[in-house]
Structures are given as C-alpha cells and as structure tokens.
C-alpha cells in the first residue's frame, strides 16, 4: 500500500540518488544529460526524440508507435540503468492528444527489447491513468485503469519483486493504483515513456520533477500562489501570498525583486519591500524552501508600479456593465476592467445603491432577488490606497417571472476533483471537499478561489478506484465567531492500515489548519467508508462509517454505525449506549446521507444496499437496521428497524440527502444518486405517528444530465447546490466535475 515518499525512503536501501536541479542562468534545451539515454523501442515508423531544459528542469519527449501494449511495444524511451530497490517519480505536465490511448508516463523494464517484462504508470489523453504490466517476456500486457483529469503525478516503487504504482494530485499525497509481484533481474532500466498510438504522428509529453531512487527529503515545496499587493506607496510595496505545501514542512520563503534575491527565509506569508523608486515597475516572485534546502518553483510573477507620490488618483469607472444571464432570482453581471495609475484592487457591486458584494474579477452573480422585479446595478473600482472610482453607468435589469420550473440550474464551478460534501458559511461563502485531492475549496461571491482552504498532508490517504479520502464537511453552528470546521477523512495508521477519523479545523481568511483530532481508528477499507458528517438540531456532531466485508454488528466494532459526539469530541451523556460509546445506531452497510426533517427533527439516512436494495431509513437512537443479516424488504424481524423505502429491481447508489424548506418542494426529501445519475424527490407523509414515503410518487430529476451526483444542500436563500462525482471516481467517466446551483424561480 501507499507510503509517504519520505517514509518510503527511510525503509528502502537506495543505491543511487538523482535529483534534477535547474541550472541557474540558462534555459536552453539540450540533449538528455548523463546518466539518461534515449532510444526508440520496437522500431516505430516515426523516430521519437528527447531534450532536456535545465532551466525549467523539464524533459520533453516525443514518440510514435502502435502502443505500449499487447505482446510487443513501440514507443520512445528516455532511460537510465537501475539496480535494486527504489522509486521513480515524475509529473506529466503536458501531453499531446494523437489518440485517446496515446500514453506518457514512467516505466520499469527488464530489457530494451519490445517484448520485455515491464511495469508502467502512464497517462492517456482521454482514458485516465493506467497501471499496466507484462509479467512474462513475450507475454500479453494487463492493466488497471482509473479515470482522472488531475495533474498527473506518477510514481513506481520497487521493493524486491513487488512493484507498486501511485498517483497524486499534488506530489504530496499519494494514492496506490495497483500492486504487482513481478520477478525481474536486479539490474533493469527505468525512465520516461511516450507512445502516440498512431503510426503516422508523434505525441509529445513534458515531464518535470523527475526523481529516481529518491532518498531523504527530496521533494521541494509547492510554489507560492495568489501573490498580490496589499499596499503600494512611492517607496514601498507590501505583498502577501498563499502558503506553500511540503511533505515535511516549509521553513521559509525567498523574495525576488526583478529576479534578484532581495530577502531570504521570510517566516510568514507577507513582506514589505522598502527603499524603492517612485513611479517604477518591479517584478516580484516568491519561492518556498524546506529544511533540506529544497526550493520550490517560483510563483507567478507580480508586476507592481510604485506611485509617483502619495496616491490620490482614483481608478477610472468600470465601463460596459452588462447582464450576461439572469433567472427569476439572480442576475449575472459583467463589465470592462477599470484602469488605475497603480492598479485596481477590487470592484464593489451595488444593487439599488446598496452594496451587494465585492470581487477582484470583472463578473459577479447577484443572487437573492425577487422574481419579475427591476433592479438598478452599478459597479465601482477601488485601488490599494483606498481611492474609489465613480460609479459605472447604471444598468437596469428585470428578473424573470416565476417559472413553471421551481429552479433554474447554473454551473458555479467546474473542473473540480471528485467533490464530496458542501456546506455554507453565514457570510455566504460555499465550502466543499474534494475527495481525492485532500483539498477544501471555497466559493466567494460566486467565484471559486484558486487557492485551496487547506490541502491535507500526512497521514491523509486517498485510494484511487475506491471510496476513501477527504469525505464529510460541516461548519460549526457558531462558525461566525469560532470558525470551526469539521471533516471526516481516511488516513494511514502507524502500522500502515487504512482507517478514518474526524478532525476539527480552524479557518481564517479562507485558510484553515488542523485544530483538534476528535476521533480516530474508525474502520477503513477500500470501499464503504461512510463519511457523511452533519451537525444536528441538538448541536451534536453526527457521522457515519461503513461495514465493508465485515459481519460484526456488535457495539465493540465501530464499522457499520452512525455516531454522535459533542462538538469538542467528547461523548454525550445521553447517547443511547451510554456515556462511553459514541454509537448512535447500528446495522448499517454503507450510510451515505444524513438530514433532519424540519419541524420534527427526525433524522433520515440514505444507505447503499447490496444488489439493488438501497435504503432510506428513519434513524432512531439505539436502533438496529439489519445489516449484515437483513436488508431491503426482509427486515420485519424482531429487534430490526425496517427502511422507510428501498430500491427494488434497480440501483440508485444514494448519496447526500437534504430536506427542502422553501418553495413548492418544501417538506420533500431530495436524494442524490451516483449509479442512478439523478436526484430523486420523495414526499414524506405521516401515518400513525410515523414518517412514511410513498414509493409510487417518486419524482426523478435531471436524469443523466449531470452524471453521478454526490451531495445536495439547501442554501439560506432557498437555492439548492449539488456536486457531481464523475472525475476520479471508481465508476466515473472522467468528465470534469461541477458545483451546480439550482436558482429558485419562486
């Protein structure tokens, strides 16, 4: 299984260390440096080539050929001899699409013959990663695949006859894609492979961060992002940036002015350049470094101009204010950027002369409007000195009349990495988790921030083709004051086992850090990790764990349960199994959704069944819900609580659920479906003092329109938000994931 790169290094005996370090002062591409060599394998019709840019630390490899597959391969190989144990790591930073199955990645081969034994970890333009291998000389290749469009970090690790393949979104957190027992010679060849899957075209791939037989702390931090000026005078510039990540830890930042190191090892994430010349433009970049001396790539440059004196000049008024789209409750605005003698810092958007929000972009979505109503919009620009422009020319827009459809879908964010759970801050920010990347992302004023709120590091663990990673998310009821966030995620224990835990974070200015671990060692597995996490009306923390492959439903085993904790991680004294047990209910196979019915505070749950027996349950404290002995329609047994509803003859794979409180669907339960690729609207009625759901009155929404749908929540303004789960999911098709808003038309 996967181990963090530094832990791997400590446990392996390496015989060679090669870390490719850019050479200062040159960016000219040249032939591959020793000990690397380049050779076309299998005599492809078009000979490939390779070059190395030492300034960028980048290999560029072109190759043609039928494929790296079957009983004989054709590709271009940039390689070096390799003996013993170790690992090769690379980032496939670009790849041309000559065919859906063109391949670029890393490989370990016993010989340079086309029918050699080998193990590869390759990326394709349209079919995701493949961990493939040939176990016998002249034998047929086999593979394991996973769809993904993420940044393509790949790693092959060899220890004896065991080879493991790993992928990563960021070069820090690695998920294992496959394990192979393959007996090869002690001395083999390792390197970079490119095949076009097209005999008449060359496919070109770029590889960076290539590391062979890595030992010790060889990974540099990620480059600083979001570098921006906070204030500008005639002789000074204050800048700030988003912190970098490192597998061990960032120790400081180096600041460059016009490519000259000006200040080394800055401890924080801000710095003020002084002694500058008035009315002069400077180019600012930032690099991070770790304790081992590894330096990150430079940040994107920030160009900033000092003022000629005290900055009293206001920006120009934004022009071209227009509405690109509207619904019955929202208006999307766009405008042309304003100009300023120093630089525009932000735009303020006004609705009927009242501030609606601010953004650093040139677009903004004004929400929460009344239907069929005219509004006057203006925009003003601000600079770093606080000077404000005059207002743009006013734009009058009338919202749409109430639609026969209660909601209008609009995509809020796209190109996401397996989003899993969504929650709202009181100030309108939207936070969501990405399962595979270990990131929490945030949407502010309708705009997705490029910098994550947090990217989890060790011991966080995600598993490609599985159901583990960063899962549930909930914000504290008093988030406006304490800024607590709660997450549920998979991790590796000290004895290398998969488990799950609940962690409290504390957030500030769209950045979070771990504050407290609330519970650990919840059973983990490849599948059925549960993971939904919500805060109930009683201000207690509820979360779920699955029972994959385990028949134990006793109170001593924590799989297949729903749990209840105080928000500080202690166990409530009124828990159904006593003050020493966090268990709230049991007998669950894989609980995926939690929601409380408004007005009754009854807890409802969605659960993955086996063989089309997905369930919707009414959760009562201490109750047993049947698994592993009973599920679906056979649960009318002593001591077993049957479901309110179960799928029969079909598979929903239900995930997040939410009760609607506003509009024509008020009181209904919405259930997202993964395999069903839909949202099911269910009407909950009362019968003999208990809730019931009529299976004959289910409404199926957005069927096959968005693919697999993972979670749904209702926002305070009555909007509904849901996220898809198509990219990087074990049954996904690799299409980019989205956060979608259902804007109310009522």
Write a short abstract of this structure.
The protein is mainly beta and 746 residues long. It is built from two helices and 56 strands.
Q: Quick one: how many beta strands? A: 56
Strand content: over 45%
Q: What helical percentage do the residues reach? A: under 10%
Provide the low-confidence segments as ranges.
Answer: 1-29
**Principal-axis shape:** globular
Radius of gyration: 28 Å
Question: Helix tally?
Answer: 2
Distance between the termini: 51 Å
Class of secondary structure makeup: mainly beta
- What kind of sheet is the major sheet? 8 strands, antiparallel
Write down the overall mean pLDDT: 90
Give structural attributes:
1% helix, 8-stranded antiparallel sheet, mainly beta, 746 residues, 7-stranded antiparallel sheet
Task: Walk me through this protein's architecture.
- The two termini are 51 Å apart.
- The longest helix has 7 residues.
- This protein has 746 residues and is mainly β.
- 48% of the residues are buried.
- The radius of gyration is 28 Å and the shape is globular.
- The chain contains two helices and 56 strands.
- Strand 40 and strand 41 form a beta hairpin.
- The strands form 13 sheets. Strands 1, 3, 4, 6, 11, 12, 13 and 15 form an eight-stranded antiparallel beta sheet that branches. It has a seven-stranded antiparallel beta sheet with strand order 2-5-14-7-8-9-10, with no helix packed on it. Strands 31, 32, 33, 34 and 35 form a five-stranded antiparallel beta sheet that branches.
Which helices and strands appear, and what pairs or packs with what?
Elements: H1 5-11, E1 18-19, E2 37-41, E3 49-53, E4 58-65, E5 75-83, E6 86-95, E7 103-109, E8 118-124, E9 128-134, E10 142-146, E11 152-159, E12 162-168, E13 174-181, E14 187-195, E15 198-212, E16 225-232, E17 237-242, E18 250-257, E19 260-266, E20 270-273, E21 281-290, E22 302-305, E23 319-326, E24 331-336, E25 344-351, E26 354-359, E27 363-366, E28 374-383, E29 395-398, E30 407-416, E31 419-424, E32 430-434, E33 439-444, E34 447-448, E35 454-455, E36 470-475, H2 479-482, E37 484-492, E38 498-508, E39 511-523, E40 533-535, E41 541-545, E42 561-565, E43 583-586, E44 591-597, E45 602-607, E46 615-619, E47 645-646, E48 654-659, E49 669-673, E50 678-682, E51 684-687, E52 690-693, E53 699-701, E54 709-714, E55 720-724, E56 737-744
Antiparallel strand pairs: 1-15, 2-5, 3-4, 4-15, 5-14, 6-11, 6-15, 7-8, 7-14, 8-9, 9-10, 11-12, 12-13, 16-17, 17-20, 18-19, 18-21, 21-22, 23-24, 24-27, 25-26, 25-28, 28-29, 30-56, 31-32, 32-33, 33-34, 33-35, 36-37, 37-38, 38-39, 40-41, 41-42, 42-43, 44-45, 45-46, 46-47, 48-49, 49-50, 50-53, ...
């Amino acid at each position: 299984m996967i181990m963090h790169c530094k832990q791997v290094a400590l446990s392996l005996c390496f015989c060679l260390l090669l870390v490719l370090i850019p050479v200062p002062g040159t960016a000219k591409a040249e032939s591959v440096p020793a000990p690397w060599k380049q050779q076309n394998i299998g005599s492809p019709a078009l000979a490939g080539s390779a070059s190395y840019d030492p300034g960028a630390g980048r290999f560029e490899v072109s190759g043609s050929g039928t494929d790296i597959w079957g009983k004989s391969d054709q590709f271009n190989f940039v390689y070096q001899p390799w003996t013993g144990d170790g690992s090769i790591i690379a980032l496939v930073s670009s790849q041309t699409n000559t065919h859906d199955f063109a391949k670029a990645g890393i490989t370990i081969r016993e010989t340079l013959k086309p029918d050699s034994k080998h193990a590869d970890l390759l990326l394709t333009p349209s079919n995701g990663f493949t961990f493939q291998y040939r176990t016998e000389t002249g034998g047929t290749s086999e593979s394991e695949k996973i769809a993904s469009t993420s940044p393509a970090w790949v790693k092959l690790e060899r220890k004896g006859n065991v080879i493991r393949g790993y992928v990563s979104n960021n070069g820090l957190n690695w998920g294992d894609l496959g394990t192979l027992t393959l007996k090869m010679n002690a001395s083999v060849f390792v390197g970079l492979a490119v095949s076009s899957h097209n005999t008449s075209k060359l496919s070109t791939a770029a590889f960076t961060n290539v590391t062979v037989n890595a030992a010790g702390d060889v990974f540099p931090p990620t480059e600083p992002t979001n570098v921006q000026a906070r204030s500008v005078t005639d002789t000074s510039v204050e800048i700030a940036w988003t912190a970098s990540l490192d597998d061990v830890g960032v120790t400081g930042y180096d600041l460059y002015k016009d490519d000259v190191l000006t200040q080394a090892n800055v401890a924080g994430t801000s710095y003020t350049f002084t002694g500058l010349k008035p009315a002069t433009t400077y180019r600012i970049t930032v690099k991070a470094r770790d304790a081992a001396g590894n330096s990150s790539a430079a940040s994107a440059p920030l160009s900033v101009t000092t003022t000629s004196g005290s900055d009293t000049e206001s920006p120009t008024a934004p022009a071209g204010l227009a509405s690109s789209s509207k619904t019955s409750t929202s208006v999307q605005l766009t405008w042309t950027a304003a100009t300023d003698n120093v630089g525009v810092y932000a735009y303020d958007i006004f609705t009927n002369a009242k501030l609606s929000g601010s953004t650093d972009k040139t677009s903004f979505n004004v929400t929460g409007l009344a239907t069929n109503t005219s509004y006057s919009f203006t925009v003003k620009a601000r600079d770093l000195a606080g000077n404000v422009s005059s207002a743009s020319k006013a734009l009058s827009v009338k919202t749409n009349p109430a639609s026969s459809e209660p909601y209008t879908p609009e995509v809020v964010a796209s190109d996401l990495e397996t989003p899993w759970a969504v929650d709202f801050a009181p100030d309108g920010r939207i936070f969501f988790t990405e399962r595979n990347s270990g990131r929490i992302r945030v949407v502010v004023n309708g705009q997705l921030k490029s910098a994550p709120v947090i990217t989890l590091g060790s011991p966080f663990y995600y598993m490609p083709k599985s159901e583990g990673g960063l899962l549930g998310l909930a914000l504290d009821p008093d988030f406006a004051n304490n800024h607590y966030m709660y997450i549920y995620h998979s991790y590796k224990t000290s004895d290398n086992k998969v488990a799950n835990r609940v962690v409290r974070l504390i957030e500030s200015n769209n950045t979070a850090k771990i504050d407290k671990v609330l519970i650990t060692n919840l059973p983990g597995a490849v599948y059925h990790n549960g993971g939904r996490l919500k805060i109930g009306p009683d201000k207690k923390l509820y979360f779920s764990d699955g029972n994959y492959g385990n028949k134990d439903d006793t109170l001593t085993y924590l799989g297949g349960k729903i749990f209840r904790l105080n928000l500080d991680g202690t166990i409530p004294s009124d828990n159904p199994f006593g003050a020493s047990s966090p268990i709230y209910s049991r007998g669950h196979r894989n609980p995926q959704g939690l929601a409380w019915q408004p007005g009754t505070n009854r807890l409802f749950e969605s659960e993955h069944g086996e063989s089309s027996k997905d369930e919707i349950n009414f959760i009562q404290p201490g109750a047993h819900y049947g698994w592993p002995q009973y599920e679906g329609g056979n649960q009318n047994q002593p001591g077993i609580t049957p479901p309110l509803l179960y799928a029969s003859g079909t598979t929903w794979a239900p995930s997040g659920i939410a009760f609607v409180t506003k509009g024509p669907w008020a009181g209904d339960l919405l259930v997202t479906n993964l395999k069903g690729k839909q949202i099911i609207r269910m009407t909950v009625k009362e019968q003999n003092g208990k809730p019931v759901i009529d299976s004959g009155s289910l409404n199926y929404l957005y069927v096959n329109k968005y693919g697999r749908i993972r979670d749904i929540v209702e926002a305070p303004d009555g909007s509904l938000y849901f996220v898809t789960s198509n990219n990087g999911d074990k049954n996904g098709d690799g299409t980019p994931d989205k956060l979608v808003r259902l804007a109310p038309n009522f």
